[in-house]
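ok trying this again, last paste got cut off
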Amino acid sequence: MTLFNSSLENELKKYKRVLITGGAGFIGGSIIRYLLENSNLEIYNLDKIGYASNLDSIENLLKKLGPKKNNKHYLLKINLVNFEDTFSAVKKSDPDLILHLAAESHVDKSIAGPDAFIESNILGTYNILKATRLHYESLNLDRKDNFRFHHISTDEVFGSLPPTGLFNENSRFDPRSPYSASKASSDHLVNAWHHTYGLPTIVTNCSNNFGPWQYPEKLIPITIINAFLQKKIPIYGNGQNIRDWLFVEDHSEALLIAATKGKSGETYCIGGFEERKNIDIVNYICEYMDQKFPQRDSHKNLIEFVPDRLGHDKRYAIDSGKIMKDLNWQPKSNFKEKLNYTINWYLENFDWVRLSKEFKI
């Protein structure tokens, strides 16, 4: 992690123990690395260790930080679909703060097999909410005052935008895929637990994340990897779909600020102010690879337009004005610099890519 925020570091001192669901995932791992480097929290990482889970980034950092951090990260291999195991994990970790990131997140997989998304994203969220409510009600008044349950969600719950306009905290839910429908359902559950049971919750909806350690199935890593291997680079439809891109470390900082400084019951939208067409992202990566490997034919020759995804949203873009104004957060990263950094990271860490559980090279 390269980000450091002294104000956030002071906020984190209010807590002793944090429970992070999905901490072996892309965004969860980024948050854990930040906390290991910039706090003294005991971190409980609840993760079922699914196909996209990976602990390498955390374990590598723990080795670098040395023995003083060996007792600061605890893996709880738990599937949230099992309530008894979930409740036991919450009881064992006794958290002052919970960040709930555990979710199935690949849209294509949700279309091919929605069952896992309903179970993980809806039933899993229901179980962690039930367990958290029991935990919260057992706390003394001082701990209740600081406690937060932070649910991390996506802008995809809002559906698709026309050529103009931005999603914000008041946008209507209009999910178009089994994945986004399951996340919308989980958002509603969290809000219901706040209003009905008084659970102090925060919800955030973010734009597309990118950066190192992302499982190689999303647009940016798959484009980098296929370009390097001289394999076809698939793009849905005509490639004109637009996404708002957010570097994962900027997102991690925003999540921790929202969790520690956000007002109970509020929702915050987090975006990177970096709208790009999918085809423009792919072309940029191909041009960068042309410079890295000038002896090859243009990597753009590998681009292959494939039939469009079912229910494919045309455009996402987020208005982050609320979190910027209320919590004093804004993205720090330059998009092209971080995209270049990400490309080089994958090229330099191809052994890790080869070991990815479902990615066959």
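PB: full thing came through this time. The mean pLDDT is 95.
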